[in-house]
Amino acid sequence: NPPLSGRFANWFKDSMGATIRSEIWAMIAPGAPDVAAALAYSDAVVDHADEGVWALLFLTAMESAAFFVSDVDKLLQIGLARVPATSRIARAVQTARSGHSEGKSALETRAAILQAIGRPNVTDVAQNLGFIALGLLYGNGDFGATLCSAVNCGYDTDTTGATVGAILGIRSGASALPKRWLDPIGERVVVGWGVEGLQAPATVQELTDRTVAIGMQVVASRCPG
């Protein structure tokens, strides 16, 4: 049973499966990184352990803070404060920060991340968090450039792209998202084949309204300040 389930006989414990769920905890605890991270922890330990759990805390704290903090390096520091300094995640993110500050190209920094902590498993969480940090740093605030900088690093691209997009969306708001990226997607929410008995929201706006309503409850009960 949790919190041991994610650790027991689990080869996937250091992978990206939990990190793709970071945004929901951040969005229902805006501006409260520790509250968001506490909720995320209870989620992560169900099916991950160690780096796989720390990665979710790192991203959730960043995304929660992004409602009020726009500086990328400050956001990375907020994330790093929630993970062990000796973790592979911390080493990957610090490598991305160092490469950027030293004027290295994005490709050079990608190579440095892989040299420092790389593993053959494409879903390994540390290297992919390094790519997320790289995208945020090298994108210079531009939505397309940030997204492509992260995704072009390869490996677990569906997660790195989604996470970078979420951080930019939280930080700047929906009105700042370029229409050329939004128009091909549209507003409809389409669930996958075989999903039954789920009262899914029909549109992004309906999903947003549901999330805000839950967020108001969390803020009222756990974030009185």
Description:
The protein has 11 helices and no strands. The chain has 225 residues and is mostly helical. The mean pLDDT is 95.
What is the 3D form? Answer: globular
Our count of helices gives 11
Q: Could you tell me the number of beta strands?
A: 0
Main pleated-sheet profile: none
Radius of gyration: 17 Å
Contiguous low-pLDDT stretches (5 residues minimum) are none
Listing every helix as H and every strand as E from the N terminus to the C terminus, the arrangement reads HHHHHHHHHHH
Overall helicity: 55-70%
Strand content: under 5%
Average pLDDT over all residues: 95
Secondary-structure map with pairings?
Elements: H1 22-27, H2 33-44, H3 51-65, H4 72-80, H5 88-101, H6 106-117, H7 125-138, H8 143-151, H9 157-172, H10 179-182, H11 204-222
Which features characterize this protein?
225 residues; mainly alpha; 11 helices; 58% helix; globular
A few lines on this structure:
This protein is mainly alpha-helical and 225 residues long. Helices cover 58% and strands 0% of the residues. It has helices at residues 22-27, 33-44, 51-65, 72-80, 88-101, 106-117, 125-138, 143-151, 157-172, 179-182, 204-222.
